[in-house]
Amino acid sequence: MRNAVPKNITTCIRCGTCCLKGGPILHIEDKEILRRGHIGYQHLITIRKGEPVLNPLTEKLEPSQKELIKVTGKDEEWSCWFYDRENSSCKIYEHRFLECRILKCWKPSELISIIGKNTIARSDIINTDDPIRLIIETHEKECSYDKVENLISLPSQELDEKETLARLSELVHKDLAIRHYAFSEMGLKPEFEFFIFGRPLSRLLSDRGIVVNIKKSKKDQSIK
Fold this sequence. Notes:
Elements: H1 17-20, H2 31-35, E1 44-47, E2 52-55, E3 60-63, E4 68-71, E5 83-84, E6 89-90, H3 98-102, H4 109-114, H5 122-125, H6 132-143, H7 145-153, H8 161-184, H9 193-197, H10 201-207
Antiparallel strand pairs: 1-4, 2-3, 5-6
Helix pairs in contact: 6-8, 7-8
């Protein structure tokens, strides 16, 4: 459950409400924090174009209009990875991101003014000669979230439920196969998976109440 913002405050009281709501979206101004190694890619998750994301203005899930990079949460929780709940503090406070630096819950106008502006994508922070970029391009071409959304939104007269699930299953298996290739053939570390590929399509579909059967071969057992 998310905390409510305390009333009648004019300065940060370290209640943790903002941190419990989730990690920040990264902006161009945050690239130096990454370059200096204050955090690693294992602390980031990619929100792909079209994927449902919480709009802080409406507090509703809406399709992301572009790719976004976000600080990941803890396990299945919303709370920011760097939030120390026991001490109600930020583990990287001296190197916190732009959205965290300017957030004032009692006066949100400054944060609102930068939402969706000058955000970064994977291509902004992965070296141009890194071979993983080609795998990312292939992944986006073969199993983009837009393809998922297009299948789900097709009128029932064009595709029946069985055919829709079959096509979604095909996308899910392509998604898993590309991830497995990156792990087994390119040596991608599992902790970087969500930054490189975002959340698996199977998990995103499950969040929408759509269950797709996944038949794993022996070589796929390591896939999340």
